[in-house]
Amino acid sequence: MSLSIASPASAVRPSIACLSRRRPVGRSSRSQMRVEAASVKVTITPSDGGESITTTVDTASVLRTVILDTGAQLYGGMDRLMNCGGMGNCGTCLVDVVEGADLLSEQTEAELRKVKAGKLKEGWRMSCQCLVGGDAAPEGAELSVVVRPKK
Ligand code: FES
């Protein structure tokens, strides 16, 4: 990732063990697009119409960490203090994936529980549960997300 701004909220990062509990959903077309490793351009837009931030991800990274490292406000209000720190429990790290959904890892069990509960709309992801970038990313890949989507 080319942009790295430390923020207190990004101090707690999910462990790989947390993300390894994922359950595949359907068949990913991403494996068929596999080419050599490339960076992913990530555009982060606030739902309140604020200015977008763009960064680049060069290695597989947790989307929540990518967003927080840019200084973008992933959380609103008290969620800044009360979120679960990326453990997949609170559901406050939602993003609406506008472009590049196939660049993200499969939904985890934590996300599927939120879908079942009706708290995860079509196209939304829990950013702490998504990996972006890495060797599966095709050349010129672009991901665009809206943070704090309107519920
Ligand atoms: S930060 Fe709590 S579910 Fe993602």
From TrEMBL:
<keyword id="KW-0001">2Fe-2S</keyword>
<dbReference type="InterPro" id="IPR036010">
    <property type="entry name" value="2Fe-2S_ferredoxin-like_sf"/>
</dbReference>
<feature type="domain" description="2Fe-2S ferredoxin-type">
    <location>
        <begin position="40"/>
        <end position="151"/>
    </location>
</feature>
<keyword id="KW-0479">Metal-binding</keyword>
<dbReference type="GO" id="GO:0009055">
    <property type="term" value="F:electron transfer activity"/>
</dbReference>
<dbReference type="InterPro" id="IPR001055">
    <property type="entry name" value="Adrenodoxin-like"/>
</dbReference>
<dbReference type="GO" id="GO:0051537">
    <property type="term" value="F:2 iron, 2 sulfur cluster binding"/>
</dbReference>
<keyword id="KW-0411">Iron-sulfur</keyword>
<protein>
    <recommendedName>
        <fullName>2Fe-2S ferredoxin-type domain-containing protein</fullName>
    </recommendedName>
</protein>
<comment type="similarity">
    <text>Belongs to the adrenodoxin/putidaredoxin family.</text>
</comment>
<dbReference type="Pfam" id="PF00111">
    <property type="entry name" value="Fer2"/>
</dbReference>
<keyword id="KW-0408">Iron</keyword>
<dbReference type="GO" id="GO:0046872">
    <property type="term" value="F:metal ion binding"/>
</dbReference>
<dbReference type="InterPro" id="IPR012675">
    <property type="entry name" value="Beta-grasp_dom_sf"/>
</dbReference>
<dbReference type="GO" id="GO:0140647">
    <property type="term" value="P:P450-containing electron transport chain"/>
</dbReference>
<dbReference type="InterPro" id="IPR001041">
    <property type="entry name" value="2Fe-2S_ferredoxin-type"/>
</dbReference>
<dbReference type="GO" id="GO:0005739">
    <property type="term" value="C:mitochondrion"/>
</dbReference>
